Amino acid sequence: MKLLFRIEAIIGDRHDSPDSLDEDEIHQWLLNLQKQDILKVETETEYWEDVPVELFELIKNNIKDGNFEHTMAKGHLWLKMDIPVE
Question: Bridge-partner residues for 40, per DSSP?
Fold first, then answer.
């Protein structure tokens, strides 16, 4: 079974973050994503501000595999990805 996860992350500093990056810059930033960069993760029924380590690893693996969609505005990056869960 797969669940749709919506992830909000902040790029850079809260007070000095870029409005936009090109695709390569976004991909590089995501490959170096840290747990503290994530502001929240949501599914239809769940919500996390402090992302569990296991979920963070699943998110990172999906990013490495390119299995996500994203939008960016005002230094915030929103990701949507399907993650298999058991």
Answer: 8
